Amino acid sequence: MRQPLHLLPRDVAPVPNVDLEAEADLARCGALKDYWYVACLSTELRPGKPLARTLFGTGLVLFRDAQGQPTALRDRCLHRNARLSRGAVFDGRIGCPYHGWVYDASGAVVEVPSLGPSQRSELLNAEACAREGLKPEPCALGRVSRFPAVEQDGLVFVYMGGDAPARAAPFRVPHWGQDGWTVYFMVTRFPNGVTNLVENFMDVPHTLFVHPGWFRKPARKRVPATVRRAEGSVLVTYKQAQDTLTGLGRLFNPRGLPLVHTDMFHVPNVTRVDYLWGEHGFVINSQCTPAGPTDSWVYTAISYRLPVDVPGALVGRALKPLVRWYTRQVIQQDVDIMDIQREALLDGPGGGVYSGTEADLHHADIEAYRRWLREGGQGSGPEAAERDMVFWI
Ligand code: FES
Ligand SMILES: [Fe+2]
What we know:
This protein is α+β, with helices and mostly antiparallel strands. Helices cover 18% and strands 30% of the residues. The protein has 6 helices and 19 strands. It has helices at residues 20-23, 126-131, 194-201, 207-210, 312-345, 361-374, and strands at 36-41, 51-55, 58-64, 70-74, 88-90, 93-95, 102-103, 109-111, 146-147, 149-152, 155-159, 182-190, 222-230, 233-238, 260-266, 270-277, 280-292, 295-305, 385-392. A hairpin with a 5-residue loop joins strand 7 and strand 8. It is elongated. The two termini are 22 Å apart. The mean pLDDT is 91. FE2/S2 (inorganic) cluster binds next to loops. GO terms for molecular function: 2 iron, 2 sulfur cluster binding; dioxygenase activity; metal ion binding. This is Phenylpropionate dioxygenase. It comes from Pseudomyxococcus hansupus.
């Protein structure tokens, strides 16, 4: 049974659907921070090199410890607050670029060059030092905040939820390490907030306008779909008769098998789009990391498996640059439209109040989950629901 979206009564002041400022602020994002977020690709975190990243408006420095494990510390020296990420990594520790204080992977100060070989103040004026809160030796200086970091499926994740336990394990990259599947990553900085990004990645009608000819031909087709919301996921199953993709989509389907297209959102920041023809096809998995209110990093994993009649690994390898070029163009088109949306959203009061039709049913579900988390994520959240919708492309 189809249900139309409820329109707001005219006399109620509209409440913004998104609060990008709060979503990206560690102090105001509620339970949105209680998840693992991608901070970088494994390949970006090179031994001996610090890497600066901002998550939820908080600067972090990432580096590999002596065992090669990823480490994430607050990117601010305890001494005079210089950026540690501008310093050097050696023996799994990091040295500040300003006066050389050294921190180990737990964030503790372990060496202060100005203390000399004894690493202890001579304390000629112990009373004055105590009065000023000065410390006699490195270990008394304390530590910078450390954030748990793990590496999985080619990605480095950081947890910023403090003492609260993570609400879910780091998201697994689809088909990572599976026979016959190729996976590659694309890293993109998007000038918009996470809610708007995940909605964009789960949006079919925009493809005709933002990616004309890259995905689909405008055909005035009726697209029925089912939207299922349950346990923090929103699954859209498209039931369009004879759905086809143009562009590179053709490569995956020389035998004209029916296309199975599903879009999925997982709280709080992940989308997964599957285009499958039998046993082959491609999956686009996007994990969004908020840096600031309209500044996000998106880690896109593209997993694909070519049909057996596209001859072998050789062609697969030859196609790689073409597939990469194609996906980069498509992502850049989304970056541009997200910039256009951001510009108007921030243009005076009233931004962030969205209206919609049935084609936006799943967007309303995504917003409901993210709003619930931003408000603290108490209880079981939006209740499960399954509805049909129809739109035209
Ligand atoms: S500011 Fe870092 S050592 Fe002085
Ligand atoms: Fe798009």
